[in-house]
Amino acid sequence: MENLTILNLEGIDFSHLGNFDAITSTPPFGEAFESLHLIECRFSAEYQVPLLISRCSRLRSLRLYALFYETASDPQLESPWSLRYTLPTGLEDLMLAHDRALGSDLLAWLCPSIGATRIRLLDLSMISQGTASAAAQFIRRAGPSVTSLGLGFQDSSWDTTDAQDAFCAVADLSTLTSLEVLELTPLSFHFIRQDRHLSSKHIPLVLEKVRSPKIRTVRLRVSILEAEDLLMGLDRLVRSLNGDNYHDLEQVVFPYIRNKVVAQARKFLEENLGARLRRTVKVVCEGLHS
Question: Which Gene3D superfamilies match (predicted)?
Answer without folding.
Answer: Ribonuclease Inhibitor
